[in-house]
Amino acid sequence: MEEFKSGFVSIIGRTNVGKSTLINLLVGEKIAAIANKVQTTRTAIRGIVNRENSQIIFIDTPGIHKPKTKLNETMIETSFGVMLDADVILFLIEADSKEIGKGDSKILEKIKESNKKTILIINKIDLVQKESLLKLIDLYRKEYDFEAVIPISALDTKYKNVILDEIEKYLKPGPAYYDVEEYTDQTLRQLAEETIREKALKILDQEVPHGIYVEVEKMNLRENKQNEEIYDIEATIYCLRNSHKGIIIGKNGQMLKKIGKMARIDMEENFGKKVNLKTWVKVKEDWQENDSIVNKFKQNK
To answer: Looking at the DSSP assignment, which residues form a beta bridge with residue 58?
Structure first.
């Protein structure tokens, strides 16, 4: 019988290259917020894949970007810290890159320092011609001795097993760190916060989303009159300015209702139970520089 293997895999890349989409594809469950905005992922999120002879723990990290606040600095520290702890690194880049930009160069430097087994994943291949893709592969191959280079579209499930099979080759014999029924180490409360924030990111104006964070204050499971289990969730969306508060609430509360409705539908699907969601909006001007809040986004040791 084949020996059981396990290990930690860090997914790293610039902001907005599709890391959260990729981890959701590989895990087969929605655990990471997906939105077409930078800084969607703020913490190191673990996704667990249980296979016949292995357990792979993926860590989706915040995108690498130029830090402007204490929060940004913490996010970048988290990304590079997670990378050093991993057994295998998945380095995600975009297929339409013509050169190795500053952000990707910085990541490559860290990969070289770590000397870890690294698989280069080239995402969004549907956007480019084969010739330019081959040039890009050649460019990166000259920079580092990657174990493999896998061109993909993170939206297409056919690439899932290709990547998982490749990762499995580089794992060492080891135990299952998590129960086979688990697919993330995030609590339901964290998943609820992520879901609300994702919906806000998707539908709010560009300048508002990065200035918000969500806190679930109450989360109780009860039975209703029909003996159905239902989660009562109360959450606060914190923002940086009064003007942002007005945008998040919207005319006659319509925007907040829309965020809440989208989040509730997603949660019910993810949790497999009904959800009664109440949301509020409050202003907390300096939260991105506030240690007690920023510390929540640090890597969980």
So the answer is: 9, 47
Give tens-digit pLDDT for 172-229.
Answer: 998 887 776 666 655 677 788 888 988 888 888 665 656 788 888 888 888 888 888 8
CA distance 247 to 114: 44
- This prediction has a pTM of 0.58
| DSSP β-ladder status, 88-94 and 5-13 | parallel
Round to whole Å and give the CA distance between 116 and 168. Answer: 15
CATH of 188-297, one of 3.30.300.20, 3.40.50.2300, 3.40.50.300, 1.10.10.10: 3.30.300.20
Q: Which CATH number fits domain 5-173: 3.50.50.60, 3.30.1320.10, 3.40.720.10, 3.40.50.300?
A: 3.40.50.300
pLDDT in tens, 45-97: 567 888 889 989 887 665 444 445 454 555 555 555 666 778 999 999 999 98
The residue extents of the domains of the chain are: 5-173, 188-297
Q: Which of 83, 82, 90, 79 is nearest to 149 (CA)?
A: 90
Pairwise CA distance, residues 16 & 130, whole Å: 22
